[in-house]
Amino acid sequence: MTSATAPGYRRAVRAICVVGARPNFMKVKPVMDALEQRGAEVILVHTGQHYDPEMSSIFFEDLGIRAPDRWLGVGSGSHAEQTALIMTRFERVIAETVPDVVVVVGDVNSTLAAAIVTAKAGALLAHVEAGLRSRDWSMPEEINRVVTDRVSDFLFAPSQDAVDNLKAEGYRGDQIHLVGNVMVDTLLANLERARRRPIRKELGVEDRPFGLVTLHRPGNVDDDAVFDGLLGALAEIASDLPLVLPAHPRTRSRLLVHHLPEGIMVGEPLGYLDFLALEASASLVLTDSGGVQEETTVLGVPCLTLRDTTERPITVEEGTNRLVGRDPDRIVDAAREALRHRPPPRRPALWDGRAGARIAEVLLEAPSRHRLRPSARCDGAGAH
Ligand code: UD1
Ligand code: UDP
């Protein structure tokens, strides 16, 4: 923790940054650094939603994130159990530390739980990655995004489509800040280091084309028929192109009871640098991840998203992503097509490595840090 007051700021701002699950770590790092560089005192809280070393501590090592100041140790559970436990334990942290602002990132249960507690406890709430919408209410993340935005004071949007969503839902202009993509900050800061990793050699794909696969959405892996269909499509693709599948724990347990096709190298989840090294040099990525759609866009690597919707349409409109759903024939055809045409990298506006700095500027330079939560008229009736 640092607590100096930077020149030009009236007093040190105390900020809590909350992390819990894998996609949070690479998003919080640039925000935390930028806040601390500007003299804010940062308290890092890890809820413990993800706890296996390869889902959590490896990211602290790879990205140089210091150990969390508070570990809530909530572990796994049903949505209600997990959310409730985070809320109960985070409420105590807020009461003890009395932060000026709480920063939450993304759309996982830790994001939602910390947001609700903050909104009732009186600190200001900043949501990084605000405004993304899949409009698919069967995904728990969509509920987490919408509710978190609704109780936030600062809405940090990664792209213009997210700004447009927020405006259409009636949020005031003074809450919304188009700052770019923090995940891209971390990618650009680590790409050269990642390229030097020996992971491709270790997997035997140093000198030959390969595809990279990630799967973890409940809608894809928990349903036997859907999962078998996806494995069948991967088997067919793997007959031409070896596939590497670092399996998320949810998927790993499902693979134990399903037939694993040949040509697919299944392993543990990878750390950030090893995964980025593979992602940057893959001929094709097949995924249902949110963050991987963004990273492949910046890297210019063709990405097939095995879902019907995306909360990140800019990766389709301006990037390398294609939504191909779950139909095995469609996935195989799309993979063959993607291997024929490699699109050039096109980086969306403000995905430039400076999103964390923009967020810190807003949070620390706000003339008065007053509450900006939406008024009672935030009802979808249009921008205020
Ligand atoms: C969570 C997020 C999802 C995100 C994903 C990133 C929610 C609702 N979902 O999904 O948005 O894309 O993380 O990876 O927040 N498990 C372990 N070890 C761990 C963590 C989990 O074995 O370190 C197993 C447990 O059996 C657990 C299951 O994975 O029940 C699911 O974990 P959970 O955090 O509930 O959801 P994810 O599927 O990881
Ligand atoms: N990632 C990783 N190792 C892996 C799979 C993914 O480091 O084995 C990284 C990936 O590069 C991206 C982030 O994890 O930065 C995406 O997280 P995830 O797919 O778990 O969640 P989502 O983005 O879907 O919420």
Shape annotation: globular
What would the CATH topology of the largest domain be? Answer: Rossmann fold
Q: Which compounds are bound in this model?
A: uridine-diphosphate-N-acetylglucosamine, uridine-5'-diphosphate
What oligomeric arrangement do these chains adopt? single chain
Radius of gyration: 21 Å
Known CATH architecture of the largest domain: 3-Layer(aba) Sandwich
Fourth-tier CATH superfamily name of the largest domain:
Glycogen Phosphorylase B
Strand count, sense and closure of the main sheet? 7 strands, parallel
How many DSSP helices? Answer: 16
Task: State the strand order across the main sheet.
Answer: 3-2-1-4-5-6-7
Extract low-pLDDT stretches: 1-6, 379-384
- What is the level 1 CATH name of the largest domain? Alpha Beta
Write down the secondary-structure element order.
EHEHEHEHEHEHEHHEHHEHEHEHEHEHH
Q: What would you call the structural class?
A: alpha/beta
Count of strand segments: 13
* Count of distinct structural domains: 2
What portion of residues is helical? 40-55%
